[in-house]
Structure formats: C-alpha cells, structure tokens
C-alpha cells in the first residue's frame, strides 16, 4: 500500500518558536505553549490509493471545522461539513502531557453524518459530520485532523481541559486561571474579518480555554441562501477548530425556528432543552457558566415556552448556589440586554420587558456578572438592581464585594449593521463607561475563588479600552 506522511511545512519555525517560549518561561504555562506551537513530530499517515467515487475536490474537502464542549465531562464534539454524503473520519492522539511528552498512537473515528438543506430559494444541501472525542485528560493537549478519503484538513492542537458537570469538585491540578474570549454580534465583511485576524493573533499569544459567542452570528446564518453562514464558519475556523466555540442564539438566528443555528452549532444537550442546546450551563474551574436564549421572551412561537427555560434557570441557579463554596463565581451569558444605553428601543422598552422577567432571578441567586450583546457597543455598569446602583465599586476599575450583578454589553465584534450610538449627553447613574466607535471583543479570566479580571479589546484601535477586577466576598450568598 502506498502511504505518505503528514507534512507540516511550518514545522521547523513552530518548533523554534516553541523552544523560544520555553526559554523565556520554562515552568509556566507549558501546556499553553504546546497548544499553539506544538513540536509535532509528524507520524500521521493515510493511504493514498483509496478509491474516491466520482467527486469533486470541493465536495469532499472538510470545511467549517469547529469544536465545542458537550453535556459530558471530558468530552468535545468536532463538527465539519462536506458536500458529499460519504462517511468522514477523524484522527486524533495525545501529543503532549504534563507527565509524558511522548505522543500516543493515532486513533481513528468514523463520523456521524446528517443532511440539512441550508438553502431557501434554491438548494444548499450540506452533510454535517460530527465526532465526539471522550475521556480527555486536562493535563494533556491533543492533535486532530478530519477528512474524507484522502482529503484531510490541516492539523489542529487542542487542550484536554473540559467542563466538569460534577458540582462538588473543581480542578485541583490546574492552578492556571480559567480564560475565555467573549464576543458578540459578529458577522462577515470587512469589520468581522478584521476582528477575526486580530483575535486569531491574540489567541496565538494568549490562548484561552474557550470562546463564548453571545449570539447574532454571521448576519445571518441563513442569508444569501445560507452562504453567509458558510462564509462565516470558514472565516472563524482558524480559532473555532482550536478553541471550544460555545454559542447561544440571538435574534438573527431566528430563521426557520432556529434550525439553521441548531444544525450548525451542536451545544450541550439535556432533557430540559430537549436536545436542542438552546440553553445550558457548565462549570469550569471556579466558575459556573449559564448560557440562555433571550429570544424565548420575544418570540411567541418559540420552540420552548418561557416557563421551560425559566424553570430550568432557577433550578440550575439553586444547584449552583448549593455548591458556591467550591465554585463561587456565577456568570450569565445572553444576547439581549437588560441594562444598556443605546438610543434604540432595545435599551428602553425591550430592555425593561426583559428586566421584568429576569432581573429578580439574577439578583436573588447572586449572579456576579451578566454578559449581554445585541446593542453594537461596549458598556459596563455599577453593581445594579432595579435601576439603582448598589455598593461594591471601589474604583473605576475595581469592584469589591459587589452587592448586585454587574452588567456588560459586548455586542461590537463587527457586522454589516455597523455601530450603535450611546445616549448623549446624559447617562443613567448606573452607567460607568461605554464605547460606540470600536469593534472588538472581551477576555475573561477567573483567577481563583475571589478574583476575576476582564478586559475589552478594540480591534479598531488595537488596544485595550476597558479593564476591571472583581474581588468577591461570601456576603452575597447564603453559605
Ligand atoms: Fe441582536
């Protein structure tokens, strides 16, 4: 059988870079160095003489590759698409572990394939491949690639760190902060591409554990017969194939009862969300992450009734609070804002409507920070409840013992709709600061049980436009 070996043309430069990183800081973040500049020593081969039944290259070459965490601990799901219904394959192996730097053998898994027509005016049938990689070890990084017959993707390096669904435990080996990119309202076009390039380079230098996209994806996933969604997913592949890309739906995902969204993004599924992944939660390190679907409050014919999500949300928060000693931070991520200062109705009548439904829950269960989007601005509030600022802002960039949730609007990644405007010249008293002329994204870092850090990056200016620490006490929850 004729065989060849996987050839990484950048191998030498990546190896040099990896070593230079280790020289600078040989002890710290060893896994993170490997995630981005792995000293891959090849070893992957595939048979070249497999017969490919009459297909064009574009039909079988894997594209729109991305990964996400699932409802199971120690597991990720890898998804990609092809335009041919042949069964795909994924190959993966441990490439580096803290206690063992010798790569393991390659493991091959055949893909599950489902068909969906993303077209509207005419057909855009795609074959969605998915493979779950289980039993991941948080002390290791892995490498994987996907393919159909002899057409294989490039090779991606990923962390073995995954959510823990057992509330009574936290990661005890990993002393590194939990780190996330938070991004909202991100589409294709010049602005979206510019943000993607900067984020990609940022993540090369400062990798994260995961990415949370706060809804409004591609503008829109279904536009131009689904081709805008395809273009967006190809655009984000360099990051989404390397870092778990966790999403929630916004108003731009509503087309065909969100089926474009749910077919493209396989989020954690459970009995409460009836297998759709439209709302879910997970623990990572010292933080509990809750992602909800605010469209349920604005769409009378939504897939789920309001009560379904509300009941789950309260149940989930109660469970999180029972474990607050171990996992003290609770964050909520959602698309539409409760507090924001744009001139649109989204920050007045619609925000008030949402506030009536959710604010009491967030306050009662002592949510720390609520991350919102939808308004194409960046904005940050005082700790706030019922329109009144509560104590807990020690200085402009430090919260201490906040007595109510802090609200952030982060909906300015870049889309064809451009910027929104902030109210001028007078803001509500709970407004701390905001930016209306920047495209960008945020970075969340949870350091330990008492300290978290957040910064907002402008891809327009190429600089950090806001940052803050939150230092917490036990006073706000009953433990
Ligand atoms: Fe929106």
CATH superfamily of the largest domain: Metallo-dependent phosphatases
> Order of strands side by side in the largest beta sheet?
16-14-12-27-28-29-24-23
- CATH structural class of the largest domain: Alpha Beta
Helix fraction by DSSP (H/I, runs of at least 4): 10-25%
Mean of all residue-level pLDDT scores = 85
The appropriate CATH architecture of the largest domain is 4-Layer Sandwich
Largest sheet: 8 strands, mixed
How many helical elements? Answer: 8
Under CATH, the topology of the largest domain can be stated as Purple Acid Phosphatase, chain A, domain 2
Low-confidence stretches: 1-30, 33-43
Whole-number tally of structural domains: 2
Q: Which structural class best describes the helix and strand composition?
A: alpha+beta
Kindly estimate the percentage of residues that lie in beta strands according to DSSP.
25-35%
Report Rg. Answer: 22 Å
Count of DSSP strands: 29
Protein name: Purple acid phosphatase
Organism: Stentor coeruleus
Catalytic activity: a phosphate monoester + H2O = an alcohol + phosphate
GO molecular function: acid phosphatase activity; metal ion binding
